[in-house]
Each structure stands twice: as C-alpha cells, then as structure tokens.
Amino acid sequence: MVFESIANLKDAIRNIVDIERGFKVLDPERLRGDLIDELAFTAALAEHHETRDAARWIVIESANKLGLWLASIQELYEARGREEFSGVTVPAVNIRGLTYDVARAIFRARKKLHVGAMIFEIAKSEIGYTMQRPMEYTAVVAAAGIKEGFQGPLFMQGDHYQVKAKAYRTQPEREIQQLKDLIDESIAGGFFNIDLDTSTLVDLSKETVFEQQRDNFALAAELCAYVRSKEPEDVSISLGGEIGEVGGKNSTAEELAAYMEGFFEELGERGPELVGISKMAIQTGTAHGGVPLPDGSIAEVALDFDTLESLSAICREDYGLAGAVQHGASTLPDELFDKFPEVETAEIHLATGFQNTIYDHEAFPKDLKNEIYAWIHKNLTNERKQDQTSEQFIYKTRKKGFGPFKKKLWSMERSIRDAICRDLQDRFEFMFEKLGALNTQQLVSIEVRRVDVPLKRPECI
C-alpha cells in the first residue's frame, strides 16, 4: 500500500488528480477509494523521501480542493472572548498511533454529530517519539478527512512547544533557535495553531509573582512576535500561553494577571499592532496521562473546577481570550467531562485515554504488544524510576512504542484496526457530546473565514 517511486505515484493518480496543469481533483470518488489509503500510507511510511513528500503535498492540496482546508481557530476564540457563544469546550486530540485509522474514526464521529469545533494536535515531544513530523501529521489527518468526506476548516495544532528549562539556563540562544526551527517547520506543514509552553521557566523561588513569571511571559512574547513574522498572509495563527506547568501547583488569578501584564508589555515593545495569545493553559491538579498506581490503574484526581471557572472568566472579561485550557484530561472519570463546558473551559487536551484504548483493546495482537513491551524494557530502562513497579513503568512509557513500531501497527489486519476504531469512535462521540462540541459546524462556518494557503510544491514534482 506504499508507493516507492515518483513514477508509480504519478501512474496511480493519472485521471484522478491532475498535478501537471495547476492542481485539480478530476475524480473525487476514485480518490476516496483505495488511492487515498495508498497515499496516506505513503505519506507516513515511504522510505523514498521524495515520494513521501509528493504524497503529502498531493493529499493536502486535494483536501483543500474538496473543501477541507487548513485554518486557524483564532477567529472562533476571539468570538468566545467577546462572549458571543458559550457552553463549548473545544476538544484537542493528540493521535499517537494508528493515526490514519484513528483520524477516520474522529471524522466519522464529527460528521454524525456535526462537530466543527475540534482540533487535531501533536506535542513537541510526541513529534519525536511517535516519529510524526508536522507535514506528515497534517497529510495523514487530511487523508482521513478525504476518505470520510468531511468538509470545513481543519485545525492542526502544535501542542506544548516547550522550552527545556535546563537547556535554556545553559544555552538559551540554542534552545530558542531550536524552538523557532520547529515553529518554521510547523507553519510550513499547515499548523496554524501553536501552544507556546514557556511555563517551564517559572521560578517560584523569586519573591514576587511577577518576577516568578518574568522569564515565562518574556520568552512567550518573543516567540509570539516570531510567529507573527512567519505566519501566512491573511492568517492569524492562534497561539496559547501557559502559566503553570502541568503536574505542578495549581494556578492562581495573581499568576494570570502577572503573566498577561508582562506579556502585553513585552509584546508591545516588539510591535503595538501584534496580535497576542488566544487562550491560557493552567494547572488544576491533573498530570499528563494520569498518575499510575503500583498495579497500573490510574489514581483519582481532585480536579479544581473552581480555578478553571474563575480563571476562564478572568481570561475573557479582562483580556478578551477564549478562556482557560485544561491539559491531562483524557483519563479522568466519565462523569466529569460535562463539567468542562459548564465552567466555560475554552479547550481541553486529550491523548492518553485513546492510547490506552488501542493498547488494551481485546483485538490488539498479544504478540505485538509483548514485542513492544520487550523493546521498552530493553531500550528505555534509564527512564524507569527506582520505586516504579513494572506495570507503572510500562504505563508511563508505552507511548514511546508508537514510533519504532509504526509500520507494524499500521499494517495490522484491517479487521483489527476496524474493531479498535469502532470503540474509539464511540469514545469520541461521547467526548464531543459531553464537551458541548456537537452541532458546532454552523458556528465555526460563521466565525472562521476561509483563507487558502498554498503549500510549497515539492521540487521532485
């Protein structure tokens, strides 16, 4: 299912997609058949990099022609900041493995429930260990949208574009440049939504909250100005800030005010006309992936909904932002999810729970799971903490099996992938309904303008 040469790729798309005279999708139905599957697999798995790059470009451009276009969620969040709608928490889903099949399940759920307000995202760390660069991620998701016949804006997001505190303290220029390089790659790959996570630089040893947040807001303002200098014409990339590292102490109104005051001052010095951030990630008591107990089960979390509600209100009323963002939520109990739109949470990030559905599904091949776990025990022992049980260690690290075993996971029998994704679709439908995202297609179509951004055509074609 993978094209290994440009010639084979061109032969396959002949009379279906015309790339010689501009770009036209000549036969959408044939494209949605086996061809889009083959293009998706090529975009993710082809060893011949030119063929891989060509497949990615063809998929993204085809999606655009068929009404699935890359977009920023900025305008929707500005409308939320103006209190023009309420009761919607936008789900942002990180897909770590089986990306094409999982994205198809998401699009099926979205079509069924008319969900427009939804983000596909991938974190800086996930880009590494899942071996999915931005352009690949965008292409595979777009291919899934084509397959399922979904139309509307496609919000692709870089999550936790994070500064490593230790590296920043020793080599700040190098650390910042690496982040800017990733931003460049992401924008080129169609990520028009980026979360700037400089919260790792918060220094709680400083005397005042303003000084504690200084490095955080100063670097966020620098990166915000950088993004504005690189964003496509007529596109305002939606940017997120963060005042408290997930897993740390709960955020406060004083921290939010200190960050925003300092951020506006720093950004204003770089250009008074520059658009700032659209949302703020805060800490409310969760941890990424949940906290595994010795038997591998997940500990209950005392999530602070009062903080979510009060800081979301401050974000909107004082600063015109969409509100607060909740991280580390996919493993929370089901009965909590309808609380997020109730307290007007702007956005919620979901990842590990869907990963768990894949690994723990009864259809998942036991021999493949054993192979992945054996690889983890052999190659990631340096990540095991002294007091961790084997179950805790595997739970925290099995996310890193998605990259090295990507080809084997994608190549599982279709019946296995379909069984897993049927259950995932049910899960997505549950999440979308609980978060108030159903029937938001019309809202999104009203608020988000279409801007066609041509991606660079690969030199090989």
What structural category characterises the helix and strand content?
A: alpha/beta
Please give the number of β-strands.
11
Query: What would you call the shape?
Result: globular
Low-confidence segments, ≥5 residues, pLDDT <50? none
Give a quick account of the main beta sheet: strands, pairing sense, barrel closure.
8 strands, parallel, barrel
CATH superfamily of the largest domain: Aldolase class I
What does this structure look like?
The protein has 461 residues and is α/β, with parallel strands linked by helices. It folds into three domains: 6-65, no CATH class; 69-358 and 413-447, Alpha-Beta Barrel (TIM Barrel); 368-410, no CATH class. Helix content is 51%, strand content 11%. It contains 19 helices and eleven strands. It has helices at 6-13, 28-45, 49-65, 74-81, 99-113, 124-129, 134-148, 165-170, 172-188, 209-230, 253-270, 305-319, 339-342, 352-360, 366-379, 390-397, 406-410, 414-434, 441-447, and strands spanning 17-18, 24-25, 68-71, 90-94, 119-123, 152-162, 193-197, 238-242, 279-282, 324-326, 347-350. The strands form two sheets. It has an eight-stranded parallel barrel, surrounded by seven helices. A two-stranded antiparallel ribbon has the order 1-2. Helix 10 links the parallel strand 7 and strand 8. Helix 2 packs antiparallel against helix 7 (134-148) and helix 3 packs across helix 7. It is globular. The two termini are 21 Å apart. The relative contact order is 0.15. The mean pLDDT is 94.
